[in-house]
Specification:
The structure holds two protein chains of two kinds.
Chain A lengths: L5 E10 L5 H10 L20 E2 L12 H16 L4 H5 L3 E6 L9 H8 L7 H7 L3 H9 L5 E4 L5 H14 L5 E8 L3 H9 L20 E2 L1 E8 L1 H7 L5 E10 L12 H14 L6 E5 L6 H14 L5 E2 L2 H4 L6 H15 L1 E2 L21 E2 L4 E7 L4 E9 L1
Parallel strand pairs in A: 2-6, 3-4, 3-5, 9-10, 9-13
Antiparallel strand pairs in A: 1-7, 1-8, 5-7, 8-14, 11-12, 13-14
Helix pairs in contact in A: 2-6, 7-13
Chain B lengths: L6 E10 L2 E2 L1 H10 L5 E7 L2 E7 L21 H17 L10 E5 L5 H14 L6 H7 L3 H10 L5 E4 L5 H14 L5 E8 L3 H10 L23 E9 L8 E10 L12 E4 L5 H10 L5 E2 L2 H4 L5 H15 L28 E7 L4 E9 L4 H7 L5
Parallel strand pairs in B: 5-6, 5-7, 10-11, 10-12
Antiparallel strand pairs in B: 1-2, 1-8, 1-9, 3-4, 7-8, 9-13, 12-13
Classes of the chains: A alpha/beta, B alpha/beta.
Chain lengths: 390, 382
């Protein structure tokens, strides 16, 4: 049974591709990408792995870089929706944010101090405790509605958008700011290298010679509003959240289920909720990390469930931004629907016979009004959001 | 929500400083008695022993082979034990477990294994970082372990929002059930008292030794750090085979100037946990309401509100109030019903206050005498 579409009235984004959504889209459509070894932190790992840092962004000292990203994207989305603090104050507005590191009690400097038998400064811990991304946004804009920080690893951003849509349908709030945010730091960098799923060269999603992912950082937020608020406030819909689905693999902590059963269920649920058929999907913004396992599983599922539908991964421009990825990719998807075109799948050169299908290799015009954005995550989470042209 | 769409708490699993299992929790609540143990901390000035409510996870072996647990950290073990206790309490058949939705709320996540991961590269260099520790440090690792052990392929969510984690995650659990995404949600709240969290608590909220937890006393810190897991098996009433009570609502937000919008709660269970700043706010919020507070039985942890919900569910099912532990209401002007009194209401609300004037409120309702209640009463409680 399909659900009520939820209008997206504003979008914001910051990532390695740009400090806002329009700059990011321009970079994607030009094919620009700048992966490089990290400059904001050092590692004694012998092989530098390229990452996608938002190098021209400096966070304030009050809270985590993750929350600063979230706030930056939220400000853009709120302004894009034509809202301000005063107009937000007249509504019951919720905040739902996905993250991986924005809610973690781990600060390397503090932990080093503990291990060295020192009495470390508590400032980093206090900063973490006042940096919950959903709280930071609610505090900044004086929002009164429900709050939630979602930590479903790499599907967090997609889940946050889907959950916020449910809040509005259920009448828990008039509007919601939803998305994802994550910063890149040493702990994440070292951790992913230890799992041996990072590429020491620029990532190559869906390519035969892909070796793994490159990490990234950033945030994206959307403003969702009920139809009633939309009519009353004069906001315009830029896009629509048509449906959302999620399902677990129940298979492994870090590897996707080989048969893609969880992803298949998530796509089926999202399409059913949207009331759209696979044939009406204009394109898919795939998770496409560039790891051998992810791309193999995801492409098999796409081949079976959405044959012939153009697909791409935008991680070749942003890196894998973890908890932010689903949100960043959702706003890219909505922007592409507006423009009627999708960028090339950066990094793809050689088709993989094991995959059998190929992503788009150049900027491609797309027809249609519906697109999917997919996320696969550690823990076996699979989440899909269906977006529609307003 | 009313009629066939009501959400029912079908089973409860709890492990904490009071012991393990719903009957042990019920006994602790009835006797208003639970004593903390101790936790040894390495600090810059030597080892310090602090009072703490610690959980014993040894009963996990009743549900999962020890061999399977080898690479599973303490945080996930707490969650696995809580989840299996809730499923056993509800007597949910194995065949129905694969269709569960899973929602985990945690204030801090898997901090023990996260600290261990940091140690692995701080001690031996970046190249020696442990991939096993890193994989288990991901916030949704407990949900993943539960889904793998149960073969549960429904939707899965983990929420980490410090003290608002429980009411916020419960709100989503209600939505999943109301939307018909799943027939049942296995909801759990879990926090571990790791070396890292113990040290942070010691530095930030150090109560004088031998001070009983006095949650609503605003003159000094009396919180006692804790760990534990409280799980609820939630079901749509049409699918439920019995239950404790209904989950009427759960919400989070900023406190309105007019105060918390209590939904005609006949009893308000306060989540106050011995922090003097929030103790004053609880006191202000609870004027002119019948109140209870049970945190001295399980201690101070962000997932504590789930234990409050479990206590409320037991009250509504049994029809009698539990006494608030002796020190809970020192110098606090409130109407505190005595233990053993008839509950006298069909509705209990559990209040959580957080930073920034934020609050969470979970409301439970008495389960009407329907078929599912009769089904429940015909079974033996685990």
């Amino acid at each position: 049974m399909s659900v009520e579409p939820i209008p997206i009235t504003g979008m914001g984004c910051i990532c390695a591709a740009g400090r806002n959504l329009s700059d990011s889209m321009r970079a994607l459509l030009r094919g620009e990408r700048h992966p490089a070894p990290p400059v904001r932190f050092a590692s004694d790992h012998p092989i530098p792995h390229p990452v996608f840092e938002a190098v021209d962004f400096e966070e304030p000292p009050d809270f985590l870089r993750t929350s600063a990203f979230a706030l930056h994207a939220a400000r853009e989305a709120i302004a894009d929706a034509g809202l301000d603090r005063e107009s937000l104050g007249a509504l019951r507005v919720g905040v739902c944010v996905g993250t991986t590191v924005g809610a973690v009690m781990s600060d390397e400097t503090f932990c080093r101090g503990c291990l060295a038998g020192e009495v470390p400064d508590m400032a980093p811990i206090r900063r973490i405790l006042r940096s919950n991304p959903a709280d930071v946004i609610a505090r900044e804009f004086g929002l009164s509605g429900p709050r939630q920080t979602v930590v479903t690893a790499c599907s967090s951003g997609t889940d946050a958008v889907g959950i916020a849509g449910s809040w509005i349908r259920a009448g828990l709030c008039d509007a919601a700011i939803a998305g994802g945010a994550d910063e890149l730091g040493r702990i994440t960098y070292i951790g992913f290298i230890s799992l041996m799923i990072t590429d020491d060269s620029p990532c190559k999603p869906f390519d035969r010679h892909r070796k793994g992912l490159n990490l990234g950082e950033g945030a994206a937020m959307v403003v969702l509003a009920s139809e009633r608020v939309l009519r009353r406030s004069g906001m315009r819909a830029r896009s629509l959240v048509l449906g959302y689905g999620s399902a677990g693999d129940a298979y492994h902590l870090t590897a996707p289920r080989p048969d893609g059963a969880g992803l298949r269920s998530a796509i089926s649920e999202a399409l059913a909720a949207s009331g759209v058929s696979p044939a009406s999907v204009a394109f898919v913004n795939a998770h496409g990390t560039g790891t051998p396992d992810n791309d193999r599983v995801e492409s098999r599922v796409l081949q079976d469930m959405l044959p012939g539908v153009p697909f791409l991964s935008t991680k070749g421009y942003t890196g894998h931004t973890l908890g932010a990825a689903g949100a960043i990719e959702a706003v890219f998807t909505a922007a592409c629907l507006e423009m009627g075109k999708i960028p090339a799948n950066a990094g793809f050169e050689t088709p993989d016979p094991e995959i059998g299908i190929t992503p788009v290799r150049e900027v491609t015009m797309v027809e249609g009004t519906v697109a999917l954005s997919e996320s696969l995550a550690f823990g076996g989470n699979n989440s899909v959001v269906v977006l529609g042209k307003a | 929500m009313s009629g066939p769409d009501r959400i029912v708490i079908e089973g409860i699993g709890a492990v904490g400083g009071f012991g393990c299992g719903i009957s042990v929790l019920s006994r602790a609540l009835t006797e208003a008695s639970s004593s903390p143990g101790t936790f040894d901390l390495s600090t810059g000035s030597g080892t310090v022993r602090i009072p703490a409510f610690l959980a014993d996870v040894s009963r996990l072996g009743e549900f999962i082979p020890v061999r399977t647990l080898r690479r599973i950290d303490r945080f996930s073990r707490l969650a696995l034990l809580g989840s299996h206790l809730a499923l056993a309490d509800a007597e949910l058949p194995e065949a129905e477990r694969s269709r569960l939705g899973i929602i985990i709320a945690s204030g801090y996540g898997a901090t023990g294994i996260t600290y261990a991961f940091l140690k692995s590269f701080i001690s031996d260099g970046d190249i020696c970082a442990s991939p096993t520790y890193f994989a288990n440090s991901v916030h949704n690792s407990a949900a993943a372990h539960i889904s793998i052990q149960l073969g549960a392929t429904g939707p899965s969510l983990t929420v980490t929002h410090f003290h608002l984690s429980v009411p916020s995650a419960l709100a989503t659990a209600r939505l999943w059930l109301a939307e018909g995404r799943v027939q049942r949600v296995l909801f759990g709240a879990v926090d571990e008292l790791s070396e890292l969290i113990g040290y942070v608590r010691f530095r930030m909220r150090h109560a004088p030794p031998d001070t009983p937890m006095t949650p609503l006393w605003t003159e000094m810190e009396t919180s006692i750090p804790a760990e534990g897991a409280a799980f609820l098996l939630l079901a749509r009433e049409s699918a439920a085979r019995g239950g404790y009570c209904t989950l009427e609502a759960s919400t989070t937000g900023s406190m309105p100037n007019s105060g918390v919008p209590f939904p005609e709660a006949g009893l308000l269970v306060l989540g106050a946990d011995g922090c003097p700043e929030s103790g004053g706010r609880y006191a202000a919020a609870a004027q002119n309401v019948r109140v209870a507070c049970y945190t001295p039985l399980y201690g101070s942890m962000p997932s504590g509100p789930a234990f409050d919900v479990a206590a409320g569910a037991l009250i509504l099912k049994g029809g009698r109030l539990f006494p608030s532990p002796g020190a809970a209401f020192r110098d606090f002007p409130a109407t505190v019903p005595a233990g053993g009194d008839p509950v006298g209401t069909d509705r209990i609300a559990c209040l959580t206050l957080a930073e920034d004037n934020a609050y969470g409120l979970t409301t439970l309702g008495k389960l009407p005498d329907t078929a599912c209640v009769r089904a429940r009463e015909g079974r033996t409680s685990s």
